[in-house]
Each structure stands twice: as structure tokens, then as C-alpha cells.
Amino acid sequence: MKLWSIRGNTQKLDGGAMFGNAPKALWQKWAAPDDLNRIELACRALLASPLGGKTVLFETGIGAFFEPKLRERYGVQEPRHVLIESLREAGFEHEDIDVVVLSHLHFDHAGGLLAPWTEGRPPELLFPNATFVVGAEHWQRALRPHPRDRASFIPELPGLLEASGRLEVVEGEYSQALGKAVRFSFSDGHTPGLMLAEIVGQPTADGTTRGGVVFCADLVPGRSWVHVPITMGYDRNAELLIDEKRRFLEDKLARHVHLFFTHDPQCAMAEVTCDEKGRFGTTHEVGELKARTLAA
Predict the structure, then answer these.
(1) pLDDT reading at 294 higher than 80
(2) Distance, first Cα to last Cα, the chain
(3) For residue 117, what are the domain limits?
(4) C-alpha pair distances (Å), 186 with each of 26, 58, 148, 222, 259
(5) 294 domain-assigned
(6) What is the CATH number of the domain that holds 268?
(7) Residue 158, Cβ density class (10 Å: 0-12 exposed, 13-18 middle, ≥19 buried)
């Protein structure tokens, strides 16, 4: 199996919103703001092939589905569909993808499912040969959004996914599409039912697995958020997220699972560390994956 980090469209969002309760004097050391107080964010996907005999894309980034006014409002930097270009650079077309795994359906993680905006045309779903995998609890949230995050969803997307006939809604640790190759866990601090996908590593004598890589989604958007107290203003329940994140990082540290970051502009993957004071950090940081074999 080989891994690629697939760049999607980039965003600039308010730094205060992205770092929640952290003061600007602190977070600007991690991410330099522009004159509008915005910081640069990646929308990075993970491509794995062959994984369980399939070509699998974890998330699709924000894409280029926004009309120009909304593209400006949400800080999307490129008008073209960068994810499709990045897939092509890696040797793949969107028609080659067998499975798309979606941690959740907020537009900056699922907008890349759609074709670029064209005036007068309704939203069009790409990836015509893919099974779309999403968690059951979050699927219900997407169907009936709360006012707290209604603006984060694409209203037409659930209907398009259902109409494709290729939607799989997952309730447990494994999906029909991927079997035991990918194990899922769930988090509620950012949004109900956020699905965290772990490409399973090597089995161990105690019945667990070692190695592999986990797509951290918005539980840990990048290296700065590995520090447990740091949350986003977009999180629905910051205290719950902190508790979930600590358990998540403790588990990945114990089993040597690599972290894959979607929003970190400079780092695609890293290993987690923990110092004598119990503070988590990262090491062996990798900026980009190009047909990389992942060792345990």
C-alpha cells in the first residue's frame, strides 16, 4: 500500500475562531495572521492505494463549489478544483476512486465532492464510481443541522449522496466497503458523530494493532492543536473535545499510530510525543506524502 497527501483548495480563516480560547499573543506564534486577522489553512486529503484492494480517498477538502461571493466570504483562495489537479499529479482521476471516507460533512471537508461552481448549473457530484462512507450519527446531523452549525453544511449534498445509490452509513468500527483494513472511532466535541478513520497497522500479541495512520479531521486539525487545551471556536463542546483528544492521543502514542493532519499548511503527517509534564507534541514531521510506504 502507498500513501499520498492530496492538496485541495486552501482557505484563510479568522485566527481567533481557529484557536478558540487561546489569546492572539499566543496563537500568532504558531500561525502568522494577515491584515484581516486570518491564518492560512490547508484542506488536505489522504489517498491510499491499494487498501483492501481498493483506491481510497479520505476526505475531499473544500473544493471549488462556492459561487464567487461565498468563496470570498469563506477565504477560499483558488477558483479551480485543486484536489482534482492534485489527484491527477499523483496519477489518479476522480473516476479511479473506489471509496471516499468522510469524517463529517462540513463544507471544508466534503465540498470537494462537487464539481466547480458554474453559473446557472445545479451542484454536481463527482467520483462516479466511489462508495461514500459517513458515520450514522453525523449523517443525521447533516440531515437536520442545528442552528449552531447549519451554515457549515451544503444543503444539496445529502440528497446527492442518497441519489447516487452508493452511500454507506456506518454505525460501528468497520464498514462494508473497507472491511477490517480501516477502523473507525467517533468524537462528538467538534460535531456529533465525527468519524476518525485509522488505516490499521500490524497486529500485536495482545490483540491490538501497532503502526498505521489515523486521519485526525477536526479533532486535531494540525500540530498546534495537538496541545490538548487548544480548541476551535467552531467546536460545539470544547470541554468534551479536550477529553476526547487526550484519550485519542494517549492511544495513538501507545500504539505508534501516525497522525495525518488536514488543515496544517506545512505538515501532512507526524508522530505524537508526550513529555514528562504530560504535554503532547509531534516529531518526525512530514510535509508531503508521495507514494510513501508506511512502516510500523
Answers:
(1) no
(2) 13
(3) 2-286
(4) 30, 15, 20, 18, 16
(5) no
(6) 3.60.15.10
(7) middle
